[in-house]
Amino acid sequence: MAQKFPKLFLILLAILFVLNLFQASFTELIYDEAYYWYYAQNLAWGYFDHPPMVAFLVKLSSFFFNGELGVRFMSILLSVGTYILLWLLIDNPKKKDYVVHFFLLVFSFTLMNAYGFLTLPDTPLLFFTALFLWLYKRFLENPSTITTLLLGVVMAALMYSKYHAVLVILFVFLSNVKLLFDKKAWLAVVVALLCYTPHLIWLYQNDFVSITFHLYERPNQAYKFDSFTLGFFLNLIVIIGLLFYWIYGAVFKFKVKDLFSKALVYLVYGVLIFFFISSFNRRVQAQWTIVISIPLAIMAFNHLLENPKARKWMYRIGMVSFVLLLYARAWMIYYPLFPKFYETHGNKQWAKELREKAGDVPIVFENSYRRAPMYEFYSGIPAISLNNYMYRKNQYSIDGSEERVRGKKIAYVTPYRDSGDFSYMTLDSSVFHGIFMDNFQSYRRLQCIVERPKTGTKHQLKVFNPYPFDIPLEQLKYTISYSNAHKQVKQMLPLKVQGKGKHVTLLQAMDTVYYEFELPLPTMENPEYFRVGISENGLPPGLNGKPIKFQE
Fold it and tell me: Looking at 157-166, 330-339, 499-508, which range is the least confident one?
């Protein structure tokens, strides 16, 4: 152990572990963490937005602790593991003399730093990327059966963390195409696919909802150079922090010596080129390129070891970065340290105020998969997000969460009303109004399936009821929303439908009713998509149909 890990390394790692424990315990959840906590309340092989690894980590954390640490504990352990693996991936014998430099370097990676105590899909993605590279390095040295099997399991773990992980596997493979003819490599692929099969089955059973959303239904916006392509380059600075000049400089000076170093180069440039091209189609979020942090850290530390001048400057700037990031961490806990609101500020406060005004009734948030789990986490009161035509689908759209509030008295909370039975304000001055509703009933899982006319102008509409109970048709009103080329809703109109066949008053359980309709004339210019929705019991129309592109 002492040969691989100097005493100073273990001491600094222990200090980092304690620091992250403290940070995780006293920092309020961010909204995405609350959403993944909600995932973990019902473990499954998949979720609307992501594969299940993040939910699994939250569930494991809850076995050890309560509160915020019960969401984040496993992320802290994985962060420690990432530091260990990075150390092992550096072969230079000089490294034992520059342990402090190593920790300053890795600690300075802003997002990697944050994922040391926050629980997000990128946390396991970073750890399993590092573990995958470590195993791949061993595989190149000695492709034993045990290493091969572990490589397959870790590839599956990567994909269970985040779909972007496919880029890690792809670009490492492209760096060594001879793997196509390697039986052991194919064994690893087979193991990975076997381990990943439960998620593939989940996707099939749920109509590939995650893939469909990410590739087809996610709203976008018109291309803007400053927020798309320029934003992509700015994000490359954001994920690294103050040391970005020296770290990217180390990449340009990095020399390929073997297949492993070639894999590092392919991984960095492959991910950067992929998302640079993507930036011409949509905004690239900073965390999408986070996997390059692992090879960048390896390249930068090797460069630091061999270049005294770079080592001196990276140490100095690393110290500045260390102080600033510690201050930022303190600000995440204590808002007055910096006059800017962040997600970790004020959540307990608004949840407490809402609980005092709404009492113990469940809360139905309009269009907020973020606030619903945050409120439930801090109040212990059931809450769901009811999504309508101006929003997007999410986990609450597919998991039957409506049944938690069906037939009950609820408080319907929205920022879109001007008044209500009660109001509350969050720390960022957003005002929300709530109204009480008795015997709440919603049917957001009703499916509207549209078939285009073969002749004429009348479309065919099938409305399928997936619920185990009948629904009075008189409670349903149909709408149509028109969207632009970026799937942004610009207009909603009532939709007149005509029943086919005998007159019915009930949409029976697991049954379908059939209608015809003509598209109402929109006033918006050049609509690109339309979508059929259902307004039940006076609620805003839901996302019952799929976006359908107008024929050319």
Answer: 499-508
Total residue count of the chain as it appears in this document? 552
Q: Do 448 and 461 contact (CB within 8 A), yes or no?
A: yes
Q: For 176-201, what is the mean pLDDT?
A: 96
Tokens 């035509």 locate to: 389
What span, in angstroms and rounded, lies between the C-alpha atoms of 394 and 384? 11
26: left (phi over 0), alpha (psi -120 to 50) or beta: alpha
Closest Cα partner for 385 from 393, 377, 359? 393
What is the CA angle 294-327-246, rounded to 5?
Answer: 40
**pLDDT for position 502:** 62
> Model pTM?
0.94
Contact (CB, 8 A) for 114 and 126: no
Domains defined along the chain, listed by start: 7-336 (no CATH), 347-437 (no CATH), 447-549 (2.60.40)
Cα 263 to the center of its chain, rounded Å: 26
Terminal CA-to-CA distance of the chain, rounded, Å? 67
Between the alpha carbon of residue 314 and those of residues 243, 304, 322, the distances in Å are 7, 8, 12
Query: What 8-state DSSP symbol labels residue 502?
Result: S
